[in-house]
Write a structure and sequence with these properties.
357 residues, alpha/beta, TIM Barrel, 12 helices, 37% helix, globular
Length: 357
């Protein structure tokens, strides 16, 4: 009898025996005292034992402001995100208040004609950020406003600091950042957030705020900010993508380093930071966990533009369930130890959270 693939050729099309076809699957009873699936059996049970919960209190909503009136301009590389004129920023602040989002963050798109090598527009009390802060606080005084302190939205070269002979100047930049922080505080900003990564800037800003009557203005330091490829869409949004010369690796952190992040955070806490931030988010969850475990400080994480664009873009194309991926990414930050999240998903996530209450 010829054999093919372990079975006689003459029998390969023959039906199996009746008893073989109808034999029930073996179902031995396992002697298990612990069955972890019991706590997953239904939605109510899963909710009861859930270790981390995302609420609207965890969200900070970053917004981009542009010159003009009654204009919302889409950011092509960030589906669902617009640049807003000041009047429209106020309307989105109203939406944030309605959604119980406690804080918004402001980033300007500065016209090329207003950019220079010194980032002078950062010190203009009538710049777009200061106009937005005053307008928001006039209508919604109880919503928190966070202002970024760095020069890259205002410089013609796209860097966060002053440049001389191709080198980023640290101490000279800090002197300008102090003035920028005071300008924002005078406009009514609640949280100063230096993102420049210059050495010593937190101490200098804290001293200046205290000396000028702004002792209650908080500092959220971008303490562990990495030189990352995930910032691309943000640079499109603020208009620095085409102006940036070189890269930022001489002042932003090397993505290979973890211990260095703890040194940066420790210094910023000692210099007076009230809250610290890790940026970007998803590739650096290990840093979030180490920082929270080491310092037990209010720890925030920025889900940056590239992270947002990947999820929003894949969701829009039907490659993933965008809403589920959004919520999974946000709860991941909470699980890693974050107390709050800066995310462009803030309004959408808040709507989902409130709808499920």
């Amino acid at each position: 009898m010829a054999i093919k693939f372990g079975r006689p050729i003459e029998m390969r099309d023959a039906p199996r025996r009746q008893t073989e076809r109808q034999a029930p699957l073996a179902s031995p009873s396992l002697d298990l005292a612990v069955r972890l699936r019991r706590n997953r059996k239904s939605e109510w049970a899963r909710r009861l034992v859930r270790e981390n919960v995302l609420t609207t209190d965890d969200l900070i909503w970053p917004m981009f402001v542009v010159d003009g009136h009654n204009v919302r301009t889409p950011v092509a590389s960030m589906p669902g995100v617009d640049r807003l004129t000041v009047d429209q920023i106020v309307r989105d602040a109203e939406r944030a208040a309605r959604l119980d989002i406690p804080c918004i963050a402001l980033f300007p798109f500065t016209e090329p004609s207003l950019r220079d090598e010194q980032g002078s527009e950062a010190l203009n009390p009538e710049n777009l950020v200061c106009q937005s802060v005053r307008a928001i606080k006039k209508e919604f005084p109880d919503i928190g406003v966070l202002c970024d302190v760095a020069l890259d939205p205002f410089t013609s070269h796209g860097h966060d600091g002053l440049i001389a002979d191709g080198r980023i100047l640290n101490d000279e930049t800090v002197a300008v950042l102090v003035k920028q922080a005071l300008t924002q505080a005078e406009a009514g900003c609640d949280v100063i957030a230096p993102s420049d990564m210059m050495d010593g800037r937190v101490a200098a800003i804290r001293e200046a705020l205290d000396d000028n009557g702004f002792a209650d203005v908080q500092i959220m330091s971008y303490a562990a900010k990495y030189a990352s490829a995930f910032y691309g869409p943000f640079r499109d949004a603020i208009g620095s993508a085409k102006t940036l010369t070189g890269d930022k690796r001489t002042y932003q952190m090397d993505s290979a380093n973890s211990d260095e992040a703890l040194r940066e955070v420790e210094l910023d806490i000692a210099e007076g930071a009230d809250m610290i931030m890790v940026k970007p988010g998803m590739p650096y969850l290990d840093i979030v966990r180490r920082v929270k475990d080491t310092f037990a400080m209010p720890t925030f994480v920025y889900q940056v533009s590239g992270e947002y664009a990947m999820i929003a873009g894949a969701g829009a194309n039907g490659w993933i369930d965008g809403e589920r991926a959004m919520m999974e990414s946000l709860i991941g930050f909470k699980r890693a130890g974050a107390d709050g999240i800066l995310t462009y998903f803030a309004p959408k996530a808040a709507e989902k959270i409130k709808a499920e209450r």
